[in-house]
């Protein structure tokens, strides 16, 4: 798959419906604006051939910020993309966006964000990152400098992210879902943070779950109940996208 230059069939995926739509789902970006640019070029070229009058649907699975070097550029690109009328764009919230929002609301309780990727996002906005253990006053000052540096469109985007999107037989979220619980009853905590109970489960959900958050290499993971499309872009240099149509799933990566 890597370096294929286009979309190829994703093996071992059961036939499912997508309500006749042309859907592109993109994994965790984590500040890799360069990879986002490349994947968007692939999508535009592919949709020009595959759309056949349909308005393509883009679903981003969260974690746009942190760890990579260009979180500000990523959010600017997504804010621009969301305004385009030729695509229907859904932006899901990831655990890193939730952590950033918590820091913006309350730097004292939200300070752990700085230690697991937030320092890179602060630097991307030209704000010197503090140490996690610094005094609350320093974190408040850092938060205020970040808000001064961040365009209003970026904050608006972060505050309007979705938690769950369903299309046909597919459900899209950031981390996964709690086994044995209907999708309508899932908690935000699980949708954004769950790992092992979801990753190890073989129980079917009402829909096939397409998710990011957890990765163990540069290839997507296909199971009977989920498709994991986080391929560790910030570390592997691979950003993955799948194209979903009725009865077909294809994959491409930068």
Q: What is the gist of this entry?
A:
The chain is an alpha/beta fold and 254 residues long. Helices cover 37% and strands 16% of the residues.
Please tell me about this protein's structure:
It is a single chain. This protein has a single domain (8-253), classed as Purple Acid Phosphatase, chain A, domain 2. Helix content is 37%, strand content 16%. The protein contains 10 helices and 11 strands. The strands form 2 sheets. It has a 6-stranded mixed beta sheet with strand order 1-11-10-2-3-4, with helices on one face. A 5-stranded mixed beta sheet has the order 5-6-7-9-8, with no helix packed on it. The longest helix is centred in the N-terminal third of the chain and has 18 residues, at 33-50. The chain starts with 7 loop residues before the first strand and ends with a strand.
Tags for this model:
254 residues; alpha/beta; Purple Acid Phosphatase, chain A, domain 2; 5-stranded mixed sheet; 11 strands
Strand order of the largest sheet: 1-11-10-2-3-4
Cα radius of gyration in angstroms: 18 Å
The shape, in one word, is: globular
Largest sheet, described in full? 6 strands, mixed
Note poorly predicted spans.
none
CA(first)-CA(last) distance: 9 Å
Number of strands: 11
Question: Taking all residues together, what is the mean pLDDT?
Answer: 96
Report the helical percentage.
Answer: 25-40%
Q: Strand fraction band?
A: 15-25%
């Amino acid at each position: 798959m890597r370096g294929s230059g286009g979309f190829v069939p994703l093996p071992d995926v059961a036939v499912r419906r997508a309500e006749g739509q042309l859907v592109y789902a993109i994994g965790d970006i984590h500040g890799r604006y360069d990879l986002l640019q490349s994947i968007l070029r692939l999508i535009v070229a592919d949709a020009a051939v595959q759309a056949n009058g349909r308005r393509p649907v883009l679903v981003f699975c969260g974690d746009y910020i942190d760890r990579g070097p260009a979180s500000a550029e990523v959010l600017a690109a997504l804010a621009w993309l969301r305004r385009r009328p030729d695509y229907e764009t859904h932006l899901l919230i990831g655990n890193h966006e939730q952590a950033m929002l918590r820091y913006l609301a309350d730097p004292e309780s939200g300070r752990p964000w700085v230690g697991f990727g937030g320092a890179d996002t602060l630097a991307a906005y030209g704000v010197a990152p503090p140490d996690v253990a610094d005094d609350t006053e320093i974190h408040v000052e850092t938060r205020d400098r970040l808000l001064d540096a961040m365009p209003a469109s970026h904050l608006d985007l972060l505050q309007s992210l979705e938690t769950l999107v369903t299309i046909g037989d597919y459900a899209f979220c950031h981390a996964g879902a709690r086994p044995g619980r209907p999708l309508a009853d899932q908690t935000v905590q699980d949708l954004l943070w769950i790992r092992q109970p979801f990753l190890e489960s073989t129980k079917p959900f009402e829909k096939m779950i397409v998710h990011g958050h957890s990765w163990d290499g540069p290839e997507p993971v296909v199971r009977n109940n989920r498709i994991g499309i986080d391929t560790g872009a910030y570390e592997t240099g691979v950003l993955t996208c799948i194209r979903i149509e009725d009865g077909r799933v294809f994959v491409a990566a930068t």
